[in-house]
Design a protein that fits this description.
Helix content is about 40%, strand content about 20%. With about 260 residues, it is of the alpha+beta class. It folds into 2 domains: about 170 residues, Jelly Rolls; about 70 residues, Arc Repressor Mutant, subunit A, CATH 1.10.10. The strands form 3 sheets. It has a 4-stranded antiparallel sheet. A 4-stranded antiparallel sheet has the order 3-7-5-6. Strands 9-11-10 form a 3-stranded antiparallel sheet, with helices on one face. The longest helix has 27 residues. It is globular, with a radius of gyration of 18 Å. The two termini are about 25 Å apart.
């Protein structure tokens, strides 16, 4: 990772100035590349990350070597949020599916600020609630729906956090999200191209048609996003003028 400057994150944006100042002295902005591992499964959580661009997948590592994603996170959340409750170990591997930036903070400093600020406790609670909701919907979708429907849901979730119709995603990365074989992904790509949802996929990129993906996906995506949007819109409000533009959209990062 390389260091950058400035902060932009939905949870930080919702904090009053005095509460935000409990965190900002301990934050620095870093960049991460695709496939960068921010947290390894079973590792102790020594720091948390406030993303403000890119997309991070929560991956479950299975004994047979396969992996499958359980959630995606971008600028709307905080990675390793449970570290505020005390020393803890990660149950997932958090890997960047799209390059971006984040502001890490040590778990010790995060816990200290969390204990001092009701506002910080509130935004963390909102985040955890929305993350649990996503996990529940993803689990239900993975159990009930075909692989092509699940693929379109992941592509839409990724597009929400990387607002570019040329998604920086390899077929191998998509296979890991789905917990599917590469050959299965290739077949599903052909099917979605025929439906007009994916105009093309080049090496390292997937070109998407947002409207086509929304027609091809299952009802899980719209229902999940509606409920998550409702949580954020009802529970969080912009408190920092500098961050206010980032809050005009409930999930998608600002252009």
């Amino acid at each position: 990772m390389t260091e950058c400057t400035s902060i932009g994150n939905r949870l930080l944006a919702a904090l009053p100035s005095a509460d935000l100042e409990l965190l900002t002295p301990h934050l620095r902005k870093v960049s991460f590349e695709p496939d960068a591992v921010l947290v390894w499964s079973v590792d102790e959580l020594h720091q948390a990350y406030f993303p403000h661009s890119g997309a991070i997948a929560f991956m479950i590592d299975l004994p047979d070597g396969h992996t499958v994603a359980t959630a995606l996170m971008g600028w709307e959340g905080v990675l390793a949020s449970l570290s505020v409750l005390g020393p803890a170990h990660s149950s997932v591997t958090a890997i960047a599916r799209a390059a971006g930036t984040a502001s890490p903070i040590s778990a010790v400093n995060f816990r200290r600020a969390y204990a001092q600020s009701a506002a910080i406790r509130h935004v963390v609670q909102v985040h955890i609630g929305s993350l649990l909701l996503q996990l529940q919907h993803v689990a239900a979708c993975n159990a009930l729906h075909r692989v092509d429907r699940r693929m379109t849901r992941w592509l839409l979730q990724l597009h929400d956090r990387v607002p570019d119709d040329h998604l920086p995603l390899t077929q191998e990365g998509l296979a890991q999200l789905l917990g599917a074989r590469r050959t299965t992904v290739t077949l599903m790509m052909r099917k979605l191209r025929a439906a007009g949802a994916i105009p093309s996929d080049r090496r390292g990129f997937v070109d998407i048609d947002r409207a086509g993906l929304e027609r091809a996906t299952c009802e899980c995506y719209a229902l999940m996003q509606q409920r998550i949007d409702s949580i954020y819109c009802q529970e969080l409000s912009p408190s920092q003028p500098a961050f206010a533009p980032a809050l005009e959209s409930s999930i998608s990062p600002p252009p």
